[in-house]
Amino acid sequence: MSEIMSNLTHHFLIAMPSMADPNFSRTLTYIAEHNDQGALGIIVNRPIDMTLATLFERVELPLDAAGFADQPVYFGGPVQTDRGFVLHRPAGEWHSTLNVNDEAGLTSSRDILQAIGSTGQPADVLVTLGYAGWTAGQLEQEIADNAWLTVRADLSIVFDLPPEERLAAAMQKLGIDFTNLSETAGHA
Predict the structure, then answer these.
(1) What does DSSP assign to residue 65?
(2) For residue 153, what is the DSSP state?
(3) How far from the centroid of its chain's Cα atoms is residue 184's Cα?
(4) Is 10 helix (H, G, I), strand (E, B) or coil?
(5) C-alpha distances in angstroms, 160 versus 12, 45, 100, 169?
(6) Burial (0-12, 13-18, 19+ Cβ within 10 Å), 104
(7) Can you tell me which family this protein belongs to (predicted)?
(8) Within 10 A of 41 (CB to CB), how many other CB atoms are there?
(9) CA 32 to CA 44: how far, in whole Å?
């Protein structure tokens, strides 16, 4: 299964109810990059007990822009949980940005936090600690094993809905109610 089934960049991964890994149980993950080397994404529906105000204080940056202080920081995944990642719209120009597409980027450099703190831009941001990563072929195998459903991402789900509504909204894009999914995987 070394060949990519399809490119899942700018897609959501919806954890199936049978997901055994507690890091991913009931999660919605945004895939920022998927290629023959593997995949990288961030979980977008698991806020942690930290606000942006607290994070900015810890990294010793001022947060003068209105509207950000009470936003939660998210658990982005189990890899590099001591490092911050910012999913943002628009993509913009930052020191260390993975441009997902013309609409969005994933940035891990301090300059984006400085801009948010001083100018409030970019306005649409989701800040995580950590990310989710898969080696070459690993995500494809997990999908084949019925661990995930996939659907093209809609960033309004991430930026316009509260975290507790995001998983269900992504499921609705597939026409599925999460409560109707079985915890038992099957193969046709």
Answers:
(1) S
(2) -
(3) 26
(4) coil
(5) 16, 12, 19, 11
(6) buried
(7) Belongs to the UPF0301 (AlgH) family.
(8) 29
(9) 12
How long, in residues, is the chain? Answer: 188
Among candidate residues 119, 54, 50, 45, the one with its CA nearest the CA of residue 87: 45
- Give the tens place of pLDDT for each residue, 159-186: 999 999 999 999 999 998 766 665 554 4
- DSSP β-ladder status, 38-43 and 28-35: antiparallel
Report helix, strand or coil for 173.
Answer: helix
| Residue found by looking up tokens 């997990």 in the block | 142
Indicate if the alpha-carbon torsion angle 108, 112, 114, 120 is positive or negative.
Answer: negative
- Tens-place pLDDT, residues 107-132: 999 999 999 999 999 999 999 999 99
pLDDT in tens, 58-83: 999 999 999 999 999 999 999 999 99
In order of 46, 124, 129, 143, the CA distances from 49 in angstroms are: 10, 20, 12, 31
In terms of Cβ atoms closer than 10 Å to its own Cβ (0-12, 13-18, 19+), residue 179 is exposed
The first and second tokens of residue 143, run together, are 């999908």
